[in-house]
Write a structure and sequence with these properties.
This protein has 442 residues and is an all-alpha fold. It folds into two domains: 375 residues, Glycosyltransferase (Alpha/alpha barrel); 34 residues. 52% of the residues lie in helices and 3% in strands. The strands form three sheets. The chain has a two-stranded antiparallel ribbon with strand order 1-6. Strands 2-3 form a two-stranded antiparallel ribbon. It has a two-stranded antiparallel ribbon with strand order 4-5. Helix 5 runs antiparallel to helix 6. The termini are far apart. The relative contact order is 0.11. The N terminus and C terminus are likely disordered. InterPro entries: SQ_cyclase_C, Terpenoid_cyclase/PrenylTrfase. This is Squalene cyclase C-terminal domain-containing protein. Keywords: Membrane, Metal-binding, Signal, Transmembrane, Transmembrane helix.
Length: 442
């Protein structure tokens, strides 16, 4: 029998990995602490909502984004994250009581992968990072993939995040293997190749379908999140590579197959996407999907009207920038700048706000003036006061202040010149008048 927490985690996983945006999913899942009333939030935690299912996730995103924005987080924020780590090196979604040993079944590869990236970006936490990497290695599936929770079938999202973490720690994913299948092989399990319909090639499915079952459909969130790993990236994205050409679609002989009668596993195995082509193929698929969807990806769930998928769109933009295609990501970045306030719930959702900061930084936009919003200020306000704020985050306000001072000085200068001109004019007029009066007397 599933406990309330287990049922909630399972529901969250299904919602997230089916393509649901993170924030609404968390809000819709009952918390095991909800019936106990509003409990005080842990010291050092970013965000004001119940952390049961996303505490470590949102904390890791916040620390990564702020560090990249040259904000030094409070010690309490960092120690909260390191304190969530289990003895075996993994992280759960949230530990309410860190004095109690972790249940390995509840440890979360997604939380672990993001924690590793956050602590790597912060620096100075090598022991925790090394233990986290060892946990990932120990919990890799036989096909090279990772599951959300250990012991379950792998999925594209979890595998992509694990690859991101390995890259962040300079651990070659090609050298992390189980039963002869490495991490890149595990990622390829979920990417559609030449056996898929032409408009699906390069996409990622969440999980492969069992033998004999209808093929799984491309998944927006899986494609967005896995694309960063396919392009060889990590968080934060700081890739200077840029190409003028659009991502290259997968080259297939004879046009490939358009049949969906076989299982996804059979289709992928029949024409696995080569590692060298994975990032470009994913980028080409996402570029086409963004163009067709008004520069955003769409969440489609059975029985529900399609809605914009902010999370998938943000990760797609990150993947495209990492792949060297910021121009193809620009439309999605513009859309996120315009519509991001809805996703962040006016800046109160820490995970969404942090992700937008990361997108803005990757696209070389100013996160302190993204869509007219200071995302860094909003994110900072959701947690403990930072130790320091660097030039990158303070630059926008300083620049704005300088511009105001410039305008002010310019205005004063204009009035001063005008005043001097008037005085000269008045003085000249008085001199002429006096001369005329003097001449009249003579």
């Amino acid at each position: 029998m599933l406990t309330a927490a287990r049922a909630g985690a399972a529901a969250l996983t299904a919602a997230l990995l089916a393509g649901a945006a993170a924030a609404p999913a968390f809000a819709d899942i009952p918390s095991p602490t909800a019936s106990l009333g509003a409990a005080p939030l842990p010291d050092g935690l970013y965000g004001k909502g119940d952390p049961t299912y996303d505490g470590v996730w949102r904390q890791s995103l916040a620390l990564t984004a702020l560090t990249a924005a040259k904000v030094t987080p409070a010690d309490s924020a960092v120690s909260w994250l390191t304190g969530q780590q289990c003895a075996d090196g993994g992280w759960p979604s949230y530990r309410a009581d860190t004095a109690t040993a972790c249940d390995p079944a509840f440890e979360d590869s997604n939380a672990t992968a993001l924690s590793i990236q956050a602590l790597t970006a912060l620096g100075g936490h090598q022991d925790a990072v090394d233990k986290g990497v060892q946990w990932l290695k120990a919990n890799q599936n036989a096909d090279g993939s990772w599951a959300y929770n250990p012991g379950n079938p792998g999925d594209a999202n979890s595998t992509g995040l694990a690859v991101n973490a390995l890259i962040a720690t300079k651990t070659d994913p090609a050298g992390v293997a189980k039963a002869g299948r490495n991490a890149f092989d595990g990622l390829a399990v979920f990417q559609l190749g030449c056996a898929a319909p032409a408009d699906q090639r390069g996409a990622f499915v969440y999980q492969t379908a069992p033998a004999g079952a209808p093929a799984a459909e491309p998944n927006a969130l899986a494609s967005g999140q896995a694309s960063l790993a396919a392009a060889g990236g990590k968080l934060p994205v700081a890739n200077g590579n840029r190409t003028d050409a659009a991502p290259k679609a997968l080259a297939c002989a004879d046009g490939g197959s358009t049949s969906t009668a076989t299982s996804t596993a059979t289709a992928i195995a029949a024409a696995a996407v080569p590692r060298a082509d994975s990032g470009e193929a994913a980028g080409a698929y996402l570029t086409a999907q963004l163009a067709a969807g008004g520069q955003h990806l769409t969440l489609t769930l059975p029985g529900a009207a399609p809605t914009p998928d902010y999370t998938a769109t943000a990760w797609a933009a990150l993947g495209l920038v990492q792949g060297g295609h910021p121009q193809q990501a620009a439309g999605a970045v513009d859309w996120l700048a315009k519509e991001g306030g809805t996703w962040t719930k006016g800046g109160t959702d820490a995970a969404a706000t942090a992700t937008l900061v990361l997108v803005a930084q990757a696209a070389q936009r100013d996160p302190a003036a993204f869509g007219g919003t200071d995302l860094v200020k909003q994110l900072t306000a959701l947690g403990p006061a930072p130790k320091a704020v660097g030039a990158a985050s303070a630059g926008a306000s300083a620049s704005a202040s300088a511009e105001k001072d410039k305008d002010k000085d310019s205005g004063i200068g204009k009035f001063w010149l005008l005043g001097v001109g008037l005085l000269i004019g008045i003085g000249g007029g008085l001199v002429l008048s006096l001369q005329r009066k003097r001449g009249a007397k003579l």
